[in-house]
Amino acid sequence: MKRITVMILTLVIVSVFALAGCGSKDNKVADGVNKMLNTTDQLSKAIDSGDQAKVKEVGPKLEDQWSTFEDDVKKDNKASYEKIEKYLDPTIAGSEASTLDKTALSTLNNQLTKALKELDSKTK
User: Cα–chain-centroid distance for residue 25?
Assistant: First the structure.
């Protein structure tokens, strides 16, 4: 009887840790997406106002934010990962360009924002 009790307690403890780990990964992705959406919003405002210095400051932050959770997205949601990657690199490159192409960068940023919102809806 004691063995069964110990076995059941062990299974409960393992299950609790496993479930806690799953939730933290989802939270990590959700938090990362929210940070990136905040940054794409800041970038959009800087593009609209033509503030190239702000664009150059804000755009590269996207890569740092993405790197904190991209492996989880790649593993769990390959389609969203590919869509975000498709727009992320050109958006960052456009933000670092010597001259600001407002139309192109705005379009890329909007597509990236859309891809992030799709991922956000999948994490809820």
Answer: 12
